[in-house]
Amino acid sequence: MTTKFTPDHEYIRVEGATGIVGITPYAQDALGDIVFVELPSVGKVLKKGDEAAVVESVKAASEIYAPVSGTVTEVNDALTGNPGLINSDPENEGWIYKIAIADAGEIDSLLDDAAYAELTQ
Amino acid sequence: MAQSTAETLKTTPLVERHIAAGGRMVPFGGYNLPVQYPTGIMTEHKWTRDYAGLFDVSHMGPSFLVLNNPSGDAEADHAAIAAIIEPLICGDIAGLKPGQIRYTLLLNETGGALDDLMVGRSPLFGGALYIVVNAGTKDGDFARIAAAAGDKAKLTRADGDNALLALQGPEAVNVMAHIAPGAVDLGFMQYAPFEWGGEKLIIARSGYTGEDGFEILVSAGNATKLWDALLADDRVKPIGLGARDSLRLEAGLPLYGHDLNETISPIEAGLGFAVSKRRREAADFPGANRILAEREGGLSRVRVGLIVEGAPAREGAEILDASGAAIGVVTSGGFAPSLGKAIALGFVPPSHAANGTPLQVSVRGRSQSAQVVETPFVPHRYFRKPKAS
């Protein structure tokens, strides 16, 4: 199990052919209280860099981009009633969607722990 | 790049306090100010509704307009100073009692709002007004007022040398009782000078949250001392600009540059109350023709409050009628922490402005249900003194 990051502060936790996508603790802290999450539809085909979801804080809306290409297989419906899960537990209960990874090679181009840590220093 | 921007920003006397408290500093109105502290906008917002929030609003434009050669007859001097400011605005200043403040609008010749502002009559002297204008418009406003004053009166800016603090919320009055006990006797929209540890404070019972509270002008040199003294009370927490915006939005109060601008009249903005009766009858304010015609129903758009289903509709979102035709635009919108739902202010034709009218808003290309509701979204809780008999 690997977790990779984008420079836009999404993470993708790779479990076999599936990736679990959310935003990093750094990102949730920067956005502040999340009050609404617009989830993608299951079955949606995304290219790397496509807008996949939107999270809204009290102040502003922020797009969440697809870290890799693939098809949305599941979304975190718990966020509809409790968008604050992204703040309280961004890496576990606050996951946003799962994606069937189309091209495993794209994972390698993402940031690893050390590179992401350096970016957010 | 962010650093070079920061260098050109002005700071308030409290900047070090904001940074020490973990404030997230952002540029606003040319100033470096905290948008939030570590607890976040939601917590700050709710704290203000439940207890008392302390805001640094030193970016705003407090000033004094004082007659150059007062006669010594307080009523005649007040009439003279009122006659200088009234041609610029739609409020009745001549009719103010000593210490009374009025919310009014600075208008252009076509009746559009150049700013919204507070004008107070000195509680002590004839021929002196306390005027507080918005940060983004203050230079233009002050130039306009100074030009109107000519050699009859002098406008003295009180920004820069002073800090302006706002203490807002149901506990504000109990906190203020320990700082300036006399201030708790002020009614809503009254002000007076008070002494605090040898220092003069000018305290107004006013604010921008819909709650009871005070706005305090203090010298720059004593600003941190007052800030610290207020925060020493457990009921008080510092509140950033983010919650200031969500609080005023829930209170249905317009934000200049968003819900008000130089094309929008007071009637369109739902601020007809700010066009004083005496001024209406005399029709002696800028844009009176348009404003009086609009008051009689000649309106093409009017500001409404909307409850929005789903994602917040932000400024610029289109408002659609029930059939999907575009009829207006959102001028302020966001999430209302006290209500747990999205709310917005926007402009629509009067035909679609009745409370309960079902509308839609377009957010990221998708239509969402919205409904016209009465503002304020959250009832005001101002402190109104019983009328003296």
Global outline of chain A = globular
**SSE-based structural type of chain B:** alpha+beta
SSE order of chain B in H/E notation?
Answer: HHEEHEEHEEEHEEHEEEHEHHHEEEEEE
By CATH, the architecture of chain A is named Beta Barrel
Largest protein interface, residues of each chain = A-B, 12 and 20 residues
Order of helices and strands of chain A: EEEHEEEEEHHEHH
Low-confidence spans of chain A: none
Spatial separation of the terminal alpha carbons of chain A = 25 Å
Biggest β-sheet of chain B: count, sense, barrel? Answer: 6 strands, mixed
User: What's the number of helices of chain B?
Assistant: 10
Q: Give the rounded overall mean pLDDT of chain A.
A: 96
CATH superfamily heading of the largest domain in chain B: Probable tRNA modification gtpase trme, domain 1
Low-confidence stretches of chain B: none
The main sheet of chain B orders its strands as 10-11-12-9-3-13
Our Rg estimate of chain B from Cα atoms comes to 21 Å
Oligomer: heterodimer
User: For this structure, what is the CATH homologous superfamily of chain A?
Assistant: RNA polymerase II/Efflux pump adaptor protein, barrel-sandwich hybrid domain
As for the CATH topology of chain A, it is OB fold (Dihydrolipoamide Acetyltransferase, E2P)
Secondary structure layout plus pairing:
The complex is a heterodimer of chains A (121) and B (389).
Chain A: E1 2-5, E2 10-15, E3 18-23, H1 25-31, E4 34-38, E5 45-46, E6 51-57, E7 61-65, E8 70-75, H2 78-81, H3 85-88, E9 97-101, H4 105-108, H5 113-119
Antiparallel strand pairs in A: 1-2, 2-3, 3-9, 4-6, 5-8, 6-7, 8-9
Chain B: H1 2-8, H2 15-20, E1 24-28, E2 31-36, H3 41-50, E3 52-56, E4 61-67, H4 74-85, E5 101-107, E6 113-121, E7 128-133, H5 138-149, E8 153-157, E9 162-168, H6 172-179, E10 191-196, E11 199-204, E12 213-219, H7 220-231, E13 236-238, H8 241-250, H9 277-282, H10 288-295, E14 302-308, E15 318-320, E16 326-336, E17 341-348, E18 358-363, E19 366-373
Parallel strand pairs in B: 3-13
Antiparallel strand pairs in B: 1-2, 3-9, 4-7, 4-8, 5-6, 6-7, 9-12, 10-11, 11-12, 14-17, 14-19, 15-16, 15-18, 16-17, 18-19
Helix pairs in contact in B: 3-8
